[in-house]
Amino acid sequence: MSITVTEKERFFSLKTANSEYQMQADSYGVLKHLWYGKIVHQNMGYLLEYPDVGFAGNLYEAGNQRTYSLNTMPLEYAGAGVGDFRICAASAVHADGSRALDLRYERYTIRKGKYNIPGLPAVYASDNEAETLEITLRDTASSLSVTLRYGVLPELDIITRSVLFQNNGTTPIVLQKAASLCLDLPQGGSWDWIHFHGRHAMERLTERTALMHGIQESSSTRGTSSHQQNPSVILCEPDCTENSGACIGAFLLYSGSFQTQIEVDQLRQTRLVMGLHPDLFQWTLQPNDTFATPEAVLSYSSNGLAQLSHHFHQVIREHICRGTYQLAERPILINSWEAAYFDFDDQKLLKIAKEAAAIGVDMLVLDDGWFGKRDDDCSGLGDWFVNEKKLNGSLCHLVEQVRAMGLKFGIWFEPEMVSEDSDLYRAHPEWSIQIPGRKPTRSRYQLLLDLSRSDVQDYLYERISAILKEADISYIKWDMNRSICDWYTTLLPADQQGELPHRYILGLYALLERLTTDFPEVLFEGCSGGGGRFDAGMLYYCPQIWCSDNTDAINRLSIQYGSSFFYPISTVGSHVSVCPNHQTGRVTPFWTRGDVALAGSFGYEMDLNKISDEEKEMVKEQVAAMHTYYDLTHEGLYYRLTGLKKQDFMAWEFVAKDQSRALLTIVKTDAEGNMLPVHTKVCGLAENKLYRCSLDGEIRSGRTWNCAGLTLHQVLKEYESIRVEFTEVE
Ligand code: DGJ
């Protein structure tokens, strides 16, 4: 039993292999958070302090007890407007206009298996792998109930959370904030927080700073999870490293606007609240209506960040990603974008395909430009009809020729968009998101379709499925190239317009669910100008996401480093492209570009007819390496060997689950005269096994390699890389 309850004390403990999570409802029905950390086997309520702090409101029922204040105690799910002045988890407007939410314990249930959330992505698990705890709280003065749902996956050290609101009364209630997660860390002490920021073509850069008093935030108001911030966060002890120290991580299964806030209060207590961004959220609950929040996923590690990442990699790969390609070997693809942009015809594509087939690539992906009137990015979006003039024939004919060469075929869509210069827009201007009386904001010259509308979803389903049926297509790249604003839908009344941002995402998920269910053999790859919607919500439908539009191997090191804290390698689309690199102008060795792309779902983004014979030989080697190392890179454990501190190289390692071998990659990022040798850590080898190192054939115990690391005696020039293998010796 991973969930235990002491009924009399209303004490709840959730245990995983290496963590324990505790809460308790006190005599006033206030549900307090007591602990999230190592397994302790005792009620940690003794840690709570009840100071008499000036200007902290006291609960009326507590009479003259000045020490009982919602403002000073760790709460499991903080209501609003009743004396806790920290960030709230939820707020609502009642029929009389009041905004208070005073949540008290009512009941609980426990059941085998993991709850799901209809219409939203969620961690899934069998009845033997998970348990669910539901604790229902009720507002003291209204008929709103708030059910906190916890899914416990003990073997994975994972706890999931989602909240279900229900209006049990007779008048509407308007939710204004409905966070998925509220976590109060009462242990005092100080924490660092790690979050992932960036911009288009430079996503998920890692920032670690000490928490300060007050509120710090990482969020998106762009209608997507965004390039700029990621819906994931880590709190760690200041001395926490990759291999030691305590840390807690959380991510959201959500692809729209979100907000992660962390508040350090006057007593140095830390509160983390994560969920839908309240500025872009509102939901009217009519009598008997329910509203379920997106899911948040939590994990704790007492052994540093690497172990925390391993927990997240496993839950995302095995309990969030789905479908035929969830665990199957991904095809090595060659994408036409950087090879041809909009300038292609059937002959150009077939020439690329021919070279690709000869070299061992598995799939040709035809990117933007194959439909409607689309020779640049100013027109055509929405008109998902094949441009047979450009392809000199039908799509089916082209695909047949590609398949005859032994390659599969994939195709690009940007379903959520519409160009004003398109037949779709001319026929259905009301399908686009724009506010009556205002000029819409254009971005990349395009507008958004209102995905909350079922007629829009039906149109897109019909068009995409028609293309999938017309030709033998094995893959879809699902792109999305702008942020969303001008929120307005013709379908909702004025007082419910605030629901559109969430309804848009629900519509997107409904469409993706329909397509992935009806076309289970098609591999969907997510994309939003690269990694602008790189989140676990999208991974529920698309087991890989184009990580960044930036294919520069050196920039990719930072982007893939940041991505690796939460997202497993199999989810990270990563391609070798030509040099000078199209985004940065940098020239890096072909070999290095391959090594960096091998730390992802591998492919190419170039015209293979334009590379040298020597480079073609390297492509063959890289393709072979991708197959040789596949079980390591996709199924093994991933270790970051270098960190945030600026070093003159970056290194990472994959260790097979049975610890029989490992692959370590080093990239020299900075060169100097009279260069010092690279010395790197080695991690995760079995202490009592012997391993041969591929560099010099030296055999040493895993313990020695783990303790002493590896010194490279050869000098790497700037941007050169090297792969080092460790193989168990019987
Ligand atoms: C943005 C994507 O990230 C690129 O890879 C490419 O598909 C373009 N869109 C096409 O417009």
Describe the protein's architecture and organization:
α6 (454-470) runs parallel beside α7, α9 packs parallel to α10 (590-597) and α10 runs parallel beside α11. This protein is 19% helix and 30% strand. The longest helix has 19 residues, at 500-518. The protein binds (2R,3S,4R,5S)-2-(hydroxymethyl)piperidine-3,4,5-triol. (2R,3S,4R,5S)-2-(hydroxymethyl)piperidine-3,4,5-triol is lined by residues 337, 367-368, 412, 479, 481, 527, 529-530, 546, 549.
Number of helices: 13
Which geometry do the CA atoms define? globular
Topology, number of strands = 38
Secondary structure: helix percent: 10-25%
Q: What small molecules accompany the polymer chains?
A: (2R,3S,4R,5S)-2-(hydroxymethyl)piperidine-3,4,5-triol
Low-pLDDT regions: none
Q: What class, by secondary structure content?
A: alpha+beta
Strand content: 25-35%
Query: What's the gyration radius in Å?
Result: 27 Å
**Biggest beta-sheet profile:** 10 strands, antiparallel
Gap from first CA to last CA: 40 Å
Overall pLDDT:
97
